[in-house]
Structures are given as structure tokens and as C-alpha cells.
Specification:
Blueprint: H1 2-19, E1 31-37, H2 44-47, E2 52-60, E3 66-71, H3 76-110
Antiparallel strand pairs: 1-2, 2-3
Helix pairs in contact: 1-3
Bound molecules: zinc ion.
């Protein structure tokens, strides 16, 4: 009976975790970096040697490959939000996987 109520608690946890998930399509994996670019000609700012800071999304892949995508300034807050969504979903999936461990044990114990 203690096990039964435990499973009920888990169901509630699952439901809460599932409803706390952000959009599962507005997600991005990677890191947001700032990089300074310099125009070769025709830019007064770069002629003074200052350059411009631009945001870059860097995504790494197995084997050490990386992909970099330069962002327009207005894209930065969107990318930040989508990166947060990805981390939240990933953390939630990890949590659900952990919650499934006792479910395996419960099934094994009731199946003898
Ligand atoms: Zn410039």
C-alpha cells in the first residue's frame, strides 16, 4: 500500500513535469557568443578600428565539429529564449527518466 501511494505521487509529478514543458519546437542547442567583426572598407566605425560586436550561435557536434550562425541583433533575445527552452526540456526529460527507475523496480517486484 505504501508502494501504491508512491506511484500516485509519481503520476502527479509526471503530470506537473509534462505541463511545465515549454514549446518543444522553439528550442536550440548551443552557446551564444559575442564576436567582433570588422568591415574591410566603407565603414567609419571599423576605420577607427572599433569594429562591431555581433552575436553568434555556436553548436558543437560529436567529433569536434562546430557550426556557427551569425545573428542579427533582434534575433539575440529569441535565441536566448530558445536556448533556455532547450535546457528546461532537457532537465525535465532527465527528471522523468529518473522517476521511471522506481517504476521499473515496482513492476519487477509485482511480477513474481
Ligand atoms: Zn563596420
Amino acid at each position: 500500500m505504501g508502494r501504491q501511494s508512491g506511484l500516485e505521487i509519481e503520476k502527479t509529478k509526471f503530470a506537473k513535469l509534462a505541463t511545465s514543458l515549454p514549446s518543444t519546437t522553439d528550442i536550440l542547442r548551443g552557446s551564444l557568443l559575442q564576436r567582433r567583426i570588422r568591415h574591410r572598407s566603407g565603414c567609419a566605425v571599423c576605420a577607427r578600428g572599433e569594429g562591431h560586436l555581433i552575436s553568434v550561435l555556436t553548436v558543437s557536434y560529436p567529433g569536434g565539429r562546430t557550426k556557427q550562425i551569425s545573428l542579427r541583433p533582434e534575433q539575440k533575445p529569441i535565441v536566448e529564449r530558445w536556448l533556455r527552452n532547450y535546457h528546461k526540456i532537457k532537465a525535465t526529460l532527465e527528471r522523468i527518466c529518473e522517476l521511471n527507475h522506481p517504476r521499473l523496480r515496482a513492476e519487477r517486484n509485482s511480477d513474481r
